[in-house]
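User: I'll paste a sequence; please echo it back and then give the predicted structure.

Assistant: Echoing your sequence first, then the prediction.
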Amino acid sequence: MIKVKPEEYRVLVVDDDPTMRLMLGAVLEGDGFQVHEAADGIDASHILSQEAIDVIVADFNMPGLDGLGLLRHAKLARPSAVRLMLTGKADLETAVRAINESEVFRFLMKPVEPEDLLRHVLSGCKRVALEREVVRLRSEMKAREKDLARLEQRSPGITQVERRSDGALVLDDSYFSDDSSDSEQG
């Protein structure tokens, strides 16, 4: 199970309503997240270009670059960032567009309860943590594959292991040669 430490994650809150933006930021900061705030999509785009943001919580309806446009941009600028969309008016078409065009992780209705916001942001952070773990494990596997290739180059056949269907190792006859009888006679 992945354990998320909020203080290790950066969350970008984007909403043109200052009261909503401050409330969302305060809830997340209160739980320990590093919070960045933007009043519109343009300001948020600048933050995305400068900061390694992990989770984006964006309002759908904003002047200028709306939430959908911002999250579409974020998908390209910070593809590993998890994207959440907030809206005061949910319709199926908006939700489908958000999911299909911006790969939105969650679609939340305003007003969002603080517990729900935290739960969804934490869930997004777990996704980020899992993706980081996959990258780390792939890197480890590549390093081990290189080690095995070097070992195989020095001692051909050493990395070849045969197993039976029950998982037991199959050893060739050289492991069973009776060298002990030679030493007893001499």
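Residues 6-135 form a domain with the Rossmann fold fold (CATH 3.40.50.2300). The radius of gyration is 27 Å.
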